[in-house]
Design goal:
Length: 207
């Protein structure tokens, strides 16, 4: 536990990350989400899960600048925030929206395939949360980095999840894509596979 709170400011960071959750819970009990609290809470929790995933992706490139390097120490906290709000999003769907009704859930799985993209994102974020400790980093060695690069797949799943369910209002899907897609493109451009194979192929094609 002492290792987790290795910096005095971390409890304040945790408090800051829990504020959206506190707002959602208080709004629920105050009746702000009625008459359809399940749908409202799903939207809000999904937005915050997306915000934290965007923050995780954003931390990597910005931490390369010396003056911002210190923020990389909070990458695990931000990642755990993304995991927490994604789990909340799933729980709200299962309990408040579907009412734990198995036939309802099965029907949604058939009629709403975008759920699969969302569930895959939740599974990936869960795996990253479980392996985020320093003990797991030491145990996994170089494999830890390979596993945690799956955050980019989780981000792509979120984009697919949002666009796949669009009916008329594209606002949320568009704004999440505006932030996530460029960060994914930047990361792809920096991968060794891209530099080794794609750039060579592109240069040969231009000759």
């Amino acid at each position: 536990m002492a290792v987790f709170w290795d910096r005095r400011e971390k409890p304040y960071v945790v408090f800051l990350f829990l504020m959206p959750l506190a707002w959602m819970v208080s709004s629920l009990f105050l009746g702000r989400y009625f008459p359809d609290p399940g749908k409202a809470l799903m939207n809000v929790s999904g937005i915050w899960a997306s915000v934290f995933v965007i923050a995780v992706l954003f931390l990597t490139p910005i931490a390369k600048f010396t003056q911002f390097r210190m923020i990389s120490r909070y990458r695990r906290f931000v990642g755990l925030g993304a995991f927490m709000y994604s789990i909340l999003h799933l729980v709200v769907y299962l309990v408040l929206f579907a009412g734990l009704n198995l036939s309802w859930i099965v029907s949604d799985l058939v009629e709403k395939p975008y759920i699969y993209a969302g569930v895959l994102a939740v599974i990936i974020l869960s795996a990253l949360a479980i392996t985020s400790t320093k003990k797991m980093m030491r145990r996994m060695g170089e494999n830890w980095k390979v596993v945690h690069r799956l955050v980019y797949l989780a981000a792509a799943c979120i984009v697919a999840h949002l666009w796949w369910q669009v009916k008329s209002d594209i606002t949320l899907a568009m704004w999440v894509s505006v932030f996530i897609v460029p960060l994914l493109v930047i990361r792809i451009n920096q991968t060794s596979y891209y530099k080794k194979y794609f750039k060579k192929t592109l240069k040969k094609g231009l000759r």
